[in-house]
Amino acid sequence: ADSQYNQAILSTNIIVNADGNLTWLSTAIFKSSCQINVEYFPFDEQNCTMKFASWTYDGYQLNLVIQTEDGDLSNYVTNGEWSLIAMRVKRNVITYSCCEEAISRYNIQHCLTSTTAILRLQLILPCVLISGLALLSFYMPSDSGEKVTLGITNAPVHDRVSHGYRRKHASNQREATVDR
Asked: Residue 164 belongs to what domain range?
C-alpha cells in the first residue's frame, strides 16, 4: 500500500445498515509491479495480476464484493509508454487444508500494451531506413568501392540503433508499475 495508507484509513467511516451489515469504503492506492516479457516488443501485450484476500478473516466473517467484472476505470490516469487494454476481476473461493472455512480471493488482471506511436519514430523508422540502405547496396555496381563501404558500415549502425534503444529503455522493459 502507499505510504499515506494509514492516514487514509483513519479518515474513513463505516456504514452500519439496519440489518447489521457493515460497509467499509476504504481509500487506498496500491502499487504493483510485474515482470515484462519483451519477446514481441514493441508489439506485445503484458498481463499483470494483483491478488486481494483477507488472511485475518474467513469467508463467513468477511465477504469481499465486486461491483463490476471489468473494474472501475473512472480514476485511471493514462501513461505515455503503456496503454491499458482491459482490466478483469475474477473471484475465487479457496479452501486450505488447515481450515474448513473458505477464503474469498479476487484476482485483478491488467492487460497492457506498449504505446507504439513513439516507438515508430525512435526504433522502427530508423531500422527501416537503415535496412533500405542495405537493399540499395544490391543495385550498386559490383566493382564499386562504395558498395563494400555501405555494406560494412550498415550492419554496425543498425546494431547501434537497436542496442542503444534497448539500453535507454532497459528499466522500463523489465517491469511496469500499475498504480491503482
From this structure: 118-170
The domain spanning residue 49 has which CATH number?
Answer: 2.70.170.10
Q: How far is CA 52 from CA 27, 66, 110, in A?
A: 15, 11, 14
pTM over cut 0.70: no
Q: Which residue has the higher pLDDT, 84 or 80?
A: 84
Q: Judge whether 25 and 12 are in contact, CB under 8 Å.
A: yes
Select from 92, 114, 136 the last residue of a domain.
Answer: 114
The distance in angstroms from the start CA to the end CA of the chain is: 10
Average pLDDT score, the chain: 75
Kindly tell me if the per-residue pLDDT of 50 is higher than 50.
yes
Q: Is the peptide bond before 156 cis (omega within 30 degrees of 0)?
A: no
